[in-house]
Amino acid sequence: MTCSSACTLALLATLCLHLFVSPSQSGDCCLRYSMKKYPCHKMKTYSIQSMMSSCDINAVIFHTMKGRYICADPAQKWTLDKRVSLHRSMKVSSTASLTLPRFLA
After folding, report:
1. Inside any domain, residue 84
2. At CB < 8 A and 24+ separation, what contacts does 18-25 make?
3. Which one of 13, 49, 57, 85 is least enclosed by Cβ atoms within 10 Å?
4. Domain total for the chain?
5. pLDDT of 73-103, one tens digit each?
């Protein structure tokens, strides 16, 4: 085997190894939507997943009190309702903390 073909083979092997060992792009992405609807009181917050961030689907990711993640279809009405409800509860808690007297804060 000549030096150039050995170098080419080593380069190809390195590239293949890099492709298989590198972290998957969908590692932190929702791959499908949850079919189950969860009560809002079990939700802590949410985040938005978009296809622009190298994920396969757009999704709303609800974060539960137990540290779990629920992938929801952003086009569904219940998803929007949960987001609105979470915004209201976050506004109430932030407003309450702002209106506390100084000696209680």
Report:
1. yes
2. 25/54, 25/55
3. 13
4. 1
5. 999 999 999 999 988 887 655 444 444 444 4
How high is the pLDDT of residue 28? 81
Point out which residues pair with 63 in neighbouring strands: 45, 69
Q: Using CA atoms, how far apart are residues 67 and 69, in angstroms rounded to an integer?
A: 7
Instruction: Express each pLDDT in 27-77 by its tens digit.
Output: 589 999 998 888 877 889 999 999 887 899 999 999 999 999 999 999 999
In a domain, 21, yes or no: no
- State how far the alpha carbon of 46 is from the alpha carbons of 7, 49, 98, in Å: 49, 10, 23
Write down the H helix ranges in the chain. Answer: 3-21, 77-98
**Could you list the residue range(s) of the whole structural domain that residue 57 is in?**
30-98
Longest distance between any two alpha carbons in the chain, whole Å: 81
Place of tokens 């540290």: 67
Specify whether the CB–CB gap between 59 and 43 falls below 8 A: no
CA distance 69 to 28: 11
| The two three-digit tokens of residue 54, written as one number | 């190298």
